[in-house]
Amino acid sequence: MALAVRVSVVIPTWNRRGWVQQAVASVLAQRLPEGISVDLWVVDDGSNDGTAEALRVAFGNRIQLLRFAENRGVAAARNAGVEASRGEWIAFLDSDDWWLPRKLERQCTFTREHRYLVSQTEEIWYRHGRRVQPRSYHRKPAGDIFLPSLERCLVSPSAVLLHRSLWEEVGGFDPSLPACEDYDLWLRIARRHPVGLCPEALVVKRGGHPDQLSRRFWGMDRFRVASLLRLLAEGGLSQARTRALLDTLERKVEILAAGAEKRGRHEEAKRYRVLAQWARTCVTESEREAA
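Structure (tokenized):
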């Protein structure tokens, strides 16, 4: 990272008038050393709670505001913010999270010293207003994170800093995915590049509220399965990575099949079981080739 850098920060929001103002304020309050500048883009994804008006009154021309006439989803909102911005580096912040005052300073220094194209920081977690400790399986890995990231998303958008060249290399968030769009992007990045982990907790992450995507959709693994199938179709993975991907795919579709059966969606369950059988066959063929 050069001594003089510009970071474009993108905050997508939808009907979070109060919380998004806290997120914006935390970016504007960053203590930045000489040489680091920030432009802040807030993308109002079709809110109908007065979000845009409240942001204009509170922050005026200190922020750049994009507004969608209707809700397009968080992936499209983030992509629009990145496309409108010009910073060499890109950072995201979810509208229900906020940054500690030295987040960008510390992460820029860390990224420069270790020469990463993408990194994240540790986080402080709150759920229902109480601080909680992440479980062991949420522990963030560093470096080559592809294999552990197959099971679940281990990169937080609010903690990420990435170089624009990397964004252009792999593409942005997939707007066809209603959820798990972050899982998909980080896997596409992790298959090609190491992901740095700044060891300081510099992001406050709030969870447990009813409008989180994880509460809006049944069977979130549906979207992860779509991402895994696309990675598999693209090819180019090592034999070990392909085997791990197929194992993960088989496990996830079996769980989805059981969930569909429980909800009386028998045809859907049947399709998942066919997919699971296909994954098992691919694993067997892979093992034969290895032998």
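The first strand starts at residue 5 and ends at 13. The radius of gyration is 20 Å.
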